[in-house]
Amino acid sequence: MNTLALFGLGALLVIASMSILFVIGRRMVNYSYVDIGWTGNFALLALLYGFCSDGFVERRWLIGTMYAIWSLRLGWHLGRRVLGHPEEGRYVELRSKWGGNGEAAFHRRMYRFYMIQAALNLILAWPMLLAMSDPRPEISPLEWAAGTLWLVALIGETLADRQLNQFKANSAHQGKVCDRGLWAWSRHPNYFFEWLIWIAYALVALSVPNLGWSGLFMPAFMLYFLLKVTGIPATEAQALRSKGAAYADYQSRTSVFVPLPPRKKR
Fold it and tell me: Which of 90, 115, 169, 256 has the smallest CB count inside 10 Å?
């Protein structure tokens, strides 16, 4: 199947997935389900592109495995926070901001939000589609280097999530800020390592003739969203609302993104 047709089929898949999760979220009064959908859709696209593209089989296995493992690991992590728990603070805040024009208008706006996430799935999976469509019967040194970077970043992201979960599991830490391990060096080490994962995906696509360079836009796009839109700004705003001065103090001494030695208190 050609690349354009696969892209269209992928669009139908993620729209259907997000629409189903929107209905579930509305009935459960918990729109946090969008996080599970956004992450899980990459695994669905990996399966679709992996089975239907015409590229070199070993390359399809390499990039498909990279996307699927990352997607399923992060989906499992987010699912533990969403399933059986109240709606996350970010979405409670959106209810407050968007609910002023009535319930029906709010749900329409949330559905658009879900569809925006579906569009992001397609855009960010572009390097995967490019790589899986590459017919060259060899895996280049650049692709192996990308796989190594992906593995290092996945380990870092997993470690950051584990450290945060262990901190939160201790009842003595309730209301406190996690500043242990990787979190002493960066306020968002999970986001930093996630960004490195997207760089690895872009490097795999970079070796594809003609359009490979277009994959470089994806880590730049992800970095913009992490730093300016849905990642760090929303997370930090919620942390300041819930933890107040303790989080402000943490901000004053800890790097926002790239892990760096913590600054000493003045």
Answer: 169
pTM attached to this predicted model: 0.80
| Domain end point (choices 96, 113, 137) | 137
Based on the domain organization, do 133 and 157 belong to the same domain? no
6 CB contacts (<8 Å, ≥6 apart)?
48, 49, 52, 53, 129, 133
Same domain, 107 and 144: no
Q: Is the pLDDT confidence value at 145 over 80?
A: yes
Q: What is the DSSP letter of 29?
A: T
Give yes or no: residues 118 and 238 share one domain. Answer: no
Candidates 118, 110, 93; CA nearest to 39 is 118
- Print the SS3 string covering 187-256: CCHHHHHHHHHHHHHHHHHHCCCCCHHHHHHHHHHHHHHHHHCCCHHHHHHHHHHHHCHHHHHHHHHCCC
What residue numbers bound the domain in which 70 lies?
A: 1-137
DSSP 3-state of 155: helix
Tens of pLDDT, residue by residue over 16-52, are 999 999 999 899 888 898 988 989 999 999 999 999 9
pLDDT tens-digit map of 186-197: 999 999 999 999
Q: Tell me how far CA of residue 73 lies from CA of 40, 53, 108, 132, 155, in angstroms.
A: 9, 24, 30, 21, 11
Q: One-letter amino acid identity for 191?
A: Y
